[in-house]
Automatic annotation (TrEMBL):
Pfam families: GFO_IDH_MocA, GFO_IDH_MocA_C. It comes from Bradyrhizobium pachyrhizi. GO terms for molecular function: nucleotide binding. Gene3D superfamilies: Dihydrodipicolinate Reductase, domain 2 (3.30.360.10), NAD(P)-binding Rossmann-like Domain (3.40.50.720). It comes from the Bacteria. SUPFAM superfamilies: Glyceraldehyde-3-phosphate dehydrogenase-like, C-terminal domain, NAD(P)-binding Rossmann-fold domains. PANTHER family: D-GLUCOSIDE 3-DEHYDROGENASE, UDP-N-ACETYL-2-AMINO-2-DEOXY-D-GLUCURONATE OXIDASE. This is Gfo/Idh/MocA family oxidoreductase.
């Protein structure tokens, strides 16, 4: 049994606490929660009959916590993950893992030195339609990849940002690219591979925040494919979609719904009898933008910890996504195309003369 504690009892904590405290994850239990805002910690703890803490050091000193779900503002993730690692706790870190690459490196190093695992929450990778699309990709059914597109068209009004003073700030949250669209940016890179360069634009269209609420970007992948990111929290009056489109020479798949859960298109040149089943049986739109992936993700975490398996999204994988997001912001600030990987031009190393 993996015993979990929750660090941070804000908005996303409901999803994690319902799964862990509600005994929906086989092999896992919730034993304690921690938040400096007493009312928040007490509410979650009271609902599930677990201990409430208001001091992180006291919380981490507990011997009955094996792993901590770090659900605090993104800008605080580095300090909190490093503290967990020093206390000998594995961590499950909500996206994004950090806001700066140096912080991500420090987190990875701290976990390695402490001999603990770090899991970055990318639950959309576990959505059944996404899993089926990935199986098709691995089987070569798309052929040459041509174009990938992600769209996040969600509604986050001013009341959402006013819930906490850290929301929409550069220091602790970032904008729509960092927060709401980070899962979708991860999807694009997971399916299409390494990004060579990006060009992005952004605006703060409706929300009164420091960061952007709307952004668009184009990407060039190493395999020659192109990518498009469209992200906004300025959709009104409600959420519209969170979608992924994959276009290849031999097939097209589009997964939409609120949270990349509903198959809109599934067509391949070389059809299989199972294609009909995929569309009919594996396409479900969730009740909210969180989708259904968290449950499958926690099953994966428990399996990795109990059986010493490698994480699908560890610190290094989470860092890749952060590097791409950082490049998008660099392009927004400079107005220029930004390269992600160094490519030697003049080096003679390894070149046969």
């Amino acid at each position: 049994m993996i015993r979990f504690g929750l660090l941070g009892c804000g908005r996303i904590a409901k999803r994690h606490s319902d799964l862990l405290g509600g005994n929906h994850i086989e092999g896992a239990s919730l034993v304690a929660v921690c938040d400096p805002i007493r009312a928040r910690a007490d509410a979650v703890a009271g609902k599930f009959g677990v201990a409430a803490h208001y001091d992180m050091d006291e919380f981490l000193a507990r011997k009955d916590i094996d792993a901590v779900a770090v659900l605090t503002p993104s800008g605080l993730h580095p300090a909190h993950v490093i503290a967990c690692a020093k206390a000998g706790k594995h961590t499950v870190v909500e996206k994004p893992m950090a806001l700066r690459l140096q912080d991500a490196d420090d987190m990875i190093r701290a976990c390695d030195q402490a001999g603990v695992k770090m899991f970055i929450v990318k639950q959309n990778r576990f959505n059944v339609p996404v899993v089926k699309a990935r199986e098709a990709l691995d089987a070569g059914r798309f052929g040459k990849l041509i174009l990938g597109t992600v769209r996040v068209r969600w509604c986050r009004d001013q009341a959402y940002y006013d819930q906490d003073d850290w929301r929409g700030t550069w220091a602790y949250d970032g904008g729509v690219l960092t927060n709401q669209a980070s899962h979708h940016v991860d999807m694009l890179e997971w399916f299409f591979g390494d990004v060579v360069s990006v060009h992005a634009r952004a605006a703060t269209a409706l929300a009164n925040i420091e960061t952007e609420d709307t952004a668009v970007a184009t990407l060039k992948f190493r395999n020659g494919a192109l990518g498009i990111i469209e992200a906004t929290t300025a959709a009104r009056p409600t959420d519209l979609e969170g979608s992924l489109s994959i276009l290849g020479e031999k097939g097209t798949v589009e997964i939409s719904g609120f949270a990349v859960n509903q198959i809109r298109h599934w067509r391949f040149v070389d059809e299989l009898p199972s294609d009909k089943d995929v569309v009919e049986k594996f396409s479900v739109n969730p009740p909210n933008v969180y989708g259904f992936g968290h449950q499958a993700y926690y099953h994966h975490v428990v399996d990795c910890l109990e059986n010493q398996r490698a994480a699908l999204v560890d610190g290094l994988e989470g860092r890749k996504s952060l590097e791409l997001i950082s490049a998008l912001y660099e392009s927004i600030e400079t107005g220029e195309e930004v390269a992600l990987r160094f490519t030697p031009r003049l080096s003679r190393l390894g070149v046969v003369s």
